[in-house]
Amino acid sequence: MNAAVYKGTALVTGASSGIGATYADRLAQRGHNLVLVARDEKRLRELAARLGTQYGVKIDVLRADLTSKEDVRTVEKRLREDEAIELLVNNAGIGPKGPLLNDDPDYLDTMIDLNVVAVNRLAVAAAQVFAERGRGAIINIASVVALVPERFNGTYNASKAFVLNLTQAINAEVADKGVKVQAVLPGLTRTEIFERAGVSSSRFDPSMVMDVTDMVDAALAGFDQGELITIPSLPDPRDWQAFFEARMVLAPNLSHDRPAERYGVRRAEAV
What we know:
Elements: E1 9-13, H1 18-29, E2 33-38, H2 41-55, E3 59-63, H3 69-81, E4 85-90, H4 105-133, E5 136-141, H5 154-174, E6 179-184, E7 189-190, H6 193-196, E8 210-211, H7 212-224, E9 229-230, H8 237-250
Parallel strand pairs: 1-2, 1-4, 2-3, 4-5, 5-6, 6-9, 7-8
Helix pairs in contact: 1-2, 1-7, 3-4, 4-5
C-alpha cells in the first residue's frame, strides 16, 4: 500500500509500544498518515522509520508526557490546528500496581492525570474541531473493567468507566455532525502495561490474555462495522445490547420530584 491510498492523518497517543504501536501499524497499512505521540521519542522515531518505509505514508513524531498539562496542551494544539487530522486514537494510559489498598496514592493520581484528564482534554478537543468540520473519528481505549469494577483496582476501573461514559456522551452530541466515535473495551491484553506496573502477565490464565495484534484487528473491524462499543472478546453482541437495555429500563425512574415510597419519606410541603 502506498501514499496514494491516503485517508487523512491519524493521531495516536501512547504509540511507542503495545496497543498504540499496533494501531499505528494497522492505520499506516490502511493508508493513513500518522502523528505518533508518546514520551519515548527514540522508540517513536524507530517505529516511524519502519512504518514509513513499509507503507509509504508520512509520519510525524510528537514527543509528549501526557501527565504534564503543558504537554497535553501541545498535543491539543496540534489536534485543533492540523486540519489533516481526521482520526484520534486516545490510547495512552497506565495500569495499577496491585490492589487499591496496597497502591501508592501518588501513583494513582498520576494514573488519573493520564487515564482521565488527558483523555478527556484530547477527546473534547477532537470532538469540537471534528464536529465543526463535519468529519472525523475518535477511538477511545477503555477496558472491560469499566463493566466489572469489583474485579480490579478501583481507581483504574473508575478511570476506564470514565472513558466509556465520556465516549457514549460525546457520541450523543456528535453522531449527527459527521463524527464517528468508538470506545474499545479490551480484556487482558499482552502488552508492556503489566511489566511497567511491576506485574507479570504470566500470573493470569493464558486463556484470558489476548494477543495485542488480535485485539487491535478486532477493534478496527468493530470500527468498520460502525460499533459505538467494541468488546473484542465478546462472542454475542446481543449480550451487550441486553446490558444496554437493562440500563435504559432504569432511565424513567432516575429522577422524580419525590423519593420512592419504599424509603418511607414524607413529602415536603411546598412553601
